[in-house]
Amino acid sequence: MGDLELLLPGEAEVLVRGLRSFPLREMGSEGWNQQHENLEKLNMQAILDATVSQGEPIQELLVTHGKVPTLVEELITVEMWKQKVFPVLCRVEDFKPQNTFPIYMVVHHEASIINLLETVFFHKEVCESAEDTVLDLVDYCHRKLTLLVARSGCGSPPEGEGSQDSNPMQELQKQAELMEFEIALKALSVLRYITDCVDRQWSVSQPPQLAHLKRIQRLHPVCWFLSPGKLQQFEGSRWLTVAPSEQQKLRKLDGQVWIALYNLLLSPEAQARYCLTSFAKGQLLKLRAFLTDTLLDQLPNLAHLQSFLAQLTLTETQPPKKDLVLEQIPEIWERLERENRGKWQAIAKHQLQHVFSPSEQDLRLQARRWAETYRLDVLEAVAPERPRCAYCSAEASKRCSRCQNEWYCCRECQVKHWEKHGKTCVLAAQGDRAK
């Protein structure tokens, strides 16, 4: 990796071997924070490895030590925390933390894990090493894609810019909602990589891919709703109007949807088990309108999908099957809900008192650790695009001179954003001086 190497091979192995699942009650605790920092380092190193194409040791370590199921369980645990505990925290009227960054780190944890999974699931052996938890991951992706479909009727995700009257917790809720949309896009990529494994031969007697294939086949209508054709594109945490000359250009998100559809419809295993009802046939045939010559030039393999849809017009539909079906089901979400049912208020109260009300000294120590974790040179190397203004999301060229973490397009935006950024900025700067 050269100068941008973040973790030495031995160090990366220690971090991977130490990964474990945390109960909801321990979200945000000292041990949990240490693992979050370790995950961020592994995440950035995995992206650096993939960028320079010089082997991907993080992916290999996760498979070797059997930690992919651990990541899936952590992902679903923090998803449940955000749905069940975070809203309780936001409703506590007398909870006015001086700094919401400790809570933000828990909210952001889901994005960190799904980003790491998106990077490593490109390799089919990672999907195989997920074992039975791949079913839980498929259901997780289904929930996120349903969110995308629901929001498609709203036109856009919530804007990142806050109101002057918002308190810190309300601002955090808005950030979490915007982050949820970006997480859903990552989940779409993960689902596409899972579909790549539909025909893969597994080394156990009962092939798990058949179980997750049955689960994925229920998602065809959702995937269809994500097909290309919009006049706006979500990039860089915001909606951008696509110029007429660019509307036919295939973008990454569109490509992931088409490849997933290709895998689900043309795989021999999928075709052998798919029940073609009249409703499903009608939905699938609508895809023909999007298979333009321009699209086929960019993804030539879709010509096979075009031929399949042409044959589908002559295919007789089948009534829904009423046979007895034995199907393996995901367990993580139901187990976590069963273990914590009726305890959400108690968990929130415990975390308010012991986790999310740190002293000024604790915040300074944590800021120092954050500064050590998020190295600026590495962040710039893994960034997919140019920095964006923290206030208006425009392309930014100026960085906060004190903490060096936030970017701005102009002095005016920096001044407007200071009320929100100031406390975190001071803590980060103090952490740097404490090194």
From TrEMBL:
It comes from the Eukaryota. This is Zinc finger MYND domain-containing protein 10. Residues 389-425 form the MYND-type domain. PROSITE patterns: ZF_MYND_1, ZF_MYND_2. Its main location: membrane. The lineage of its organism: Eukaryota, Metazoa, Chordata, Craniata, Vertebrata. The keyword Zinc applies. It comes from Pongo abelii. Transmembrane segments: none annotated. InterPro entries: ZMYND10 (IPR052298), Znf_MYND (IPR002893). It is found in: Apical cell membrane; Cytoplasm, Cytoskeleton, Microtubule organizing center, Centrosome, Centriolar satellite; Dynein axonemal particle. One of its GO terms (biological process) is inner dynein arm assembly. Plays a role in axonemal structure organization and motility. Involved in axonemal pre-assembly of inner and outer dynein arms (IDA and ODA, respectively) for proper axoneme building for cilia motility. May act by indirectly regulating transcription of dynein proteins. One of its GO terms (molecular function) is zinc ion binding. The keyword Metal-binding applies. Interacts (via C-terminus) with DNAAF11 (via CS domain); this interaction stabilizes DNAAF11 at the protein level. Interacts (via C-terminus) with DNAL1; this interaction stabilizes DNAL1 at the protein level. Interacts with DNAAF4, HSPA8, IQUB, RUVBL2 and DYNTL5. One of its GO terms (cellular component) is centriolar satellite.
